[in-house]
Amino acid sequence: MIKDSAIKVVSPAKLNLFLYVLGRRQDGYHDLQTLFQLIETGDAMTFSKNSSGEIRLSGDNVVIPKDENLIFKAAKEVHQPGLGVDITFKKNIPIGAGLGGGSSNAASTLIVLNHLWDLGLNKIELAKIGSKLGADVPVFVLGKSALATGRGDKLSPVDIPPRWYVVIFPNCTVNTGQIFSREELTRNSTPITMADFLAGTSRNDCQIVVTELFKEIKTALKWLGEYGDSRLTGTGGAIFASFESEIEAIDVAQQAPENWWTVVTRGINQSPLMDFLL
Question: Is 73 labeled as catalytic in the residue annotation?
């Protein structure tokens, strides 16, 4: 690949197939166990070198101030004098849906700029930089579906059996900090094994709290639950259910209320950005 040419990538989203809160940490975070499933659906991003030495960011729906945008913040982390880049993006993943769109964008930025600017950073170094930007960034730098512990940053790659997913966002944004601050949140769950998950024994500890606070999500979970095992991803507000075939998933998605963001997508075990890390 020519490093001076424009690089176009899809920055994949993720689902949390289960989420257990194991306890509080002394640093104010929580010990978690979760299973990250990468999905094909993602945001479109384009990177092109420029001679200005500046990071220039544009998008079709930029609503986050530049200094708070994870794409810009990630680029700043690896920027060096004299290096410039134009980054454009199209958000296909709703902001605040719990699908990891911002974290994935940050990881994609680190990975592609490392390649485009020939920085010579390895995957471990990029993940360490990414962890400063958000707890979910390292899994996208790893580029593989993974079982996660700690804050969600200790990762063990896994191959998850192929499934199709209907993902719904009922336009209800959930603040993660709010959910983890609630006293009624379960904080003493026992970790499970992959065998438990494959046998159908898993849950999301945040789901009960979220559905009590957000009636739109409770309604969406009940609706999708008529067709499959509907579940919250992360702390929400997106929900999902898995299906064996694309046809089955499309049939369900076509019946969803028009005011919900709905997509049919396939689970993937490896990010399309892995080519830049080989």
Answer: no
SS3 label, residue 164: strand
Distance CA 201, CA 18 (A): 10
- Mean pLDDT (the chain) is 94
CATH number of the domain at 7-158, out of 3.30.70.930, 3.30.460.10, 3.30.70.1490, 3.30.230.10? 3.30.230.10
pLDDT in the model for residue 67: 77
Under 8 Å CB-to-CB from 199, ≥6 apart: which residues? none
- Alpha carbons 163 and 250: distance in angstroms, whole number: 13
The model's pTM is: 0.94
Residue 234's closest CA among 100, 98, 137, 135? 98
Give the C-alpha separation, 122 to 242, whole Å. 34
Question: What are the structure tokens assigned to 127, written together?
Answer: 């993940």
Q: Which residues contact 93 (CB under 8 A, 6 or more apart)?
A: 13, 41, 42, 43, 99, 100, 101, 104
Residue tagged active-site, from 14, 73, 91, 144: 14
For residue 23, what is the enclosing H or E element?
strand 7-24
Please identify which of the residues 31, 43, 136, 153 carries the catalytic annotation: 136
CA angle, residues 38, 68, 70, in degrees to nearest 5: 25
Whether 14 sits among the annotated catalytic residues: the reply is: yes
Q: In the block, which residue shows the tokens 């454009």?
A: 88
Residue 62 has pLDDT above 70, yes or no: no
Cβ contact 104:139 at 8 Å = no
Contact yes or no for 148/36 (Cβ under 8 A): yes
Q: How many residues does the chain have?
A: 278
User: What stretch(es) of the chain map to CATH 3.30.230.10?
Assistant: 7-158
Q: With the C-alpha atoms ordered 2, 4, 8, 13, is the resulting torsion angle positive or negative?
A: positive
